[in-house]
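tool_call: predict_structure(chain=1)
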Amino acid sequence: MKRVSYAEFGGPDVLQLIAAEEPHAGPGQVRIAVRAAGVNAIDWRLREGQKLTARPLALPTGVGQDASGVVDEVGAGVEDVRVGDHVFGEGSDTYAEFAVLSAWARMPAGLSFEEAAGYPSVMETALRIIREVGVRPGQTLLVSGASGGVGSTVLQIARDRGITTIGTAASANQDYLRSLGALATTYGEGWVERVRQLGHIDAALDLAGSGVLRELVQLTGDPDRVVSIADLGAPEFGVRFSGVAGSVPDALATAVDLISRGKLHLPVDTTYPLAEAASAHRDSQAGHTRGRRIIVV
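tool_result:
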């Protein structure tokens, strides 16, 4: 089996495509023949050696947590899927030909493997931070860095819940944000005033880590009304840094519901073969994504 791995922390070039033993499904798990894997910021943050988990990461290690594929092994106690089912979900070391999932759902009709692989982590994250920031129907949510996977998901969930959104993104992504129901404006000098002209801000999310927390607190008037998933310095401003995952099965069920009702769609920005995982990480770190970047197996 081929798997992307790294034996030392560092830049994208530490990623190597290696031959590895196939994993097997334990109790309450399924193994899939991977068709696609989602590229998430946590993948390259861990690769760099950022301390994002309570336990030190043991090297060498694989990469990736989101995937879609075909079930080919079912662990003890699993009764909701069978071999041959098409599923998407979250597991470990998903940049590989085979991976074990600990949470999954059947893929909605009409969804491609590439599209499905983009949903699990971003859906969980979007639901979690909307809950943590406390925004309610009828209020206005500012999303800084709104065009990526999490931002695109937040905007669509908010629209379904009756929450007004204002999104900031690069000039090339303004029409894209509007297509998701957001009021849109650009980064750069004068962005705070441009946001104020669009409306009163009840809560704000920092998804890009671009050094805007002070301004987000000013716009909301309360650091408790701001949540960041990208700026580790958030506590210095009294802002919550959200990094502890909630229920992935619940997130997948919500994704299936929204997708099936035509209320959620995440476009695939770029696809990469396993051998080009380093390029996927470089592009992910550069930002300015419209939707998701996906490894295709």
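agent: The mean pLDDT is 95. Proceeding to next step.
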